[in-house]
């Protein structure tokens, strides 16, 4: 399998490592003259760091699968997927996709690492709209293996399937979104936390350091094991249905305080409950709680000491 990486900033270099680590041949291109030397140095340093932490075997072999070129057509020739990692600028992206339409095969998947710009905006009026989607990673993707796969309205289903197959083969966990939304899931969740964090500082409720400590020692540590829905499910005997009944009104008041009106309606709660019970029947609730606690104990035992 062959992958092209267009743009060798921090995300591009990280993606090159992800694909090469999985045995794929990778060709990297950057529009900035002289970027190759910096990119080579970056990818070598990151590969060595992963090796030192026992997260990468035979870094020389992995690096040997990563090539660099200043010729875009050469970089994308024969590629199954082009991972675009140029700056978060609509004009720059549209110019690149216009070029890609002339030099890539019709079967090549075009995936943007965009953090917020949707595929439909990038490809509006372009011939490649039917094979373009968003492949938004966690940063860095060689440590955070989630990747959001977000098709545009014109993206063909087989292109989405192909992207998910390639990402899975690279060791990533593709999250296939049902429709476009600015910021996707990762940044909308992150943005919700940041908006409240800024408000808490503004209102004199807590300091920056204390808010970071709450996240690092509390929410973040727990969310490193399970997500927010499973957290709510396991925090209340009877599961997430009972949690929503008890805590929903309080969360609604908190949201209203910030001018937000997104109530947990009975229908919405019922859908969340249905999905959670498909994942974990209530009969397995106690065992999962014990599993969560074991994971947190292991994580706590491995936490670095707080800086003095």
Brief descriptors of the model:
single chain, Rossmann fold, N-(1-d-carboxylethyl)-l-norvaline Dehydrogenase, domain 2, 8-stranded mixed sheet, 13 helices, 8 strands, globular
Number of strands: 8
CATH topology assignment of the largest domain:
Rossmann fold
Which strand order spans the largest sheet, edge to edge or round the barrel?
A: 3-2-1-4-5-6-7-8
Q: Could you give the distance between the termini? A: 48 Å
Number of domains: 2
Secondary structure category: alpha/beta
From the alpha carbons, calculate the radius of gyration and give it in angstroms: 22 Å
Arithmetic mean pLDDT: 96
SSE ordering: EHEHHEHEHEHEEHEHHHHHH
CATH architecture name of the largest domain? 3-Layer(aba) Sandwich
Provide a descriptive summary of the structure in words.
- With 308 residues, this protein is of the alpha/beta class.
- The protein folds into two domains: 2-176, NAD(P)-binding Rossmann-like Domain (Rossmann fold, 3-Layer(aba) Sandwich); 186-301, N-(1-d-carboxylethyl)-l-norvaline Dehydrogenase, domain 2 (Orthogonal Bundle), CATH 1.10.1040.10.
- Helix content is 53%, strand content 12%.
- It contains 13 helices and eight strands.
- The protein has helices at residues 10-21, 35-52, 59-64, 72-76, 90-103, 119-123, 157-169, 186-202, 208-223, 228-235, 240-257, 266-279, 285-301; strands at residues 2-6, 25-29, 66-68, 81-84, 109-112, 132-137, 146-151, 173-176.
- Strands 3-2-1-4-5-6-7-8 form an eight-stranded mixed sheet, sandwiched between helices.
- α1 (10-21) crosses α2 (35-52) and α10 (228-235) crosses α11 (240-257).
- It is globular.
